[in-house]
Amino acid sequence: MKLATLRNGRPDGQLVIVSNDLSRFVSAGRIAPTLQAALDGWDALAPGLSALAAQLEAGEIAGQVFEAKLAHAPLPRAFQWIDGSGYMSHLERVRSLKGSKDAELQSVRPLLYQGASDSLSGPTDPLPIYGDDLALDFEAEVAVIIGAVPMRATREQASAAIRLVTLINDVSLRRLVADDLQNGFGFFHSKPSTAFAPVAVTLDSLGERWRDNRLHLPVRVEVNGALYGQPNAGVGVHFDFVDLIVEAARTRNLTAGTIIGGGTISNAHDETLPIKSNGIGFACIAEARTAEKAKFGGARTPFLKAGDEVRIFAVDSGSAPVFGSIAQRVEVGNIPV
């Protein structure tokens, strides 16, 4: 089952069910008006949503044409958005960045930060930039949306709480990272609104692509139409999503609708840009630049600038993107006076 939220003039939008090929949708309003409402009553409402999805897939319901540009983030605003550090190779590559600390490279307990969740971006929302000196970067990640999890949850409880899987662009302003980390409180100004793929997918619909508490699919990143990376989200995972949920619930209850990110997807390799068509590449610019520094003595790849376009998606066996595509263009925002 694939779920999306369409814009309807209200903050939480309208919940819809999308066909597997992402071509059609039907409103889920008679079952749950919003995704948050569906998550709050998941055990009671999911069977009805699944039945409606089956009718749409079988052609018993004609549905309407689905367009990603009409979609919000699946949860336009969430009670909580927590990003984790599932891939050690990402941390190892970016540890040389200004403001990072070797002590933060923890292999026993995952790092977490609490992001802004009051206004999450849709798949085609622009990437605003307020100057060329902020080092605008993208970070392609897998994220899960969960049901309620109690404090001190077991791995079984954490695994059972995973409701939906999606892709995100965890946008970073690299030049502000050092200031944020050095103030002792963590990321704030360096992490503007996170963007989401148009649909979130249930585990049963992913089948064997979801196992070992992780997504086993390459996630492709393109910048201005050129291949930037296609690391496999199931490879090189040091902390899986159950690890991240258990750690997030160590000192608090997690409410239904909490979003957990797995960290920038990263596979170990010694490539630099440009990569070959069968290469692995990178899911963020910072990693590409640190690889260049190690090989050439200096970074060659620029950060994003106005007019650049970023596309993030996952494809399985030549089919349509499983979660749809995040397709964002960098635009100059209004600079406050």
TrEMBL record:
Alphabetical UniProt keywords: Hydrolase
Sequence ranges assigned to domain Fumarylacetoacetase-like C-terminal in this UniProt record: 81-330
Secretion signal span: none
Molecular-function GO term, any one: hydrolase activity
Fumarylacetoacetase N-terminal domain location: 1-77
Pfam family, one: FAA_hydro_N_2
Name this protein carries in UniProt: Fumarylacetoacetate hydrolase family protein
UniProt organism field: Devosia rhizoryzae
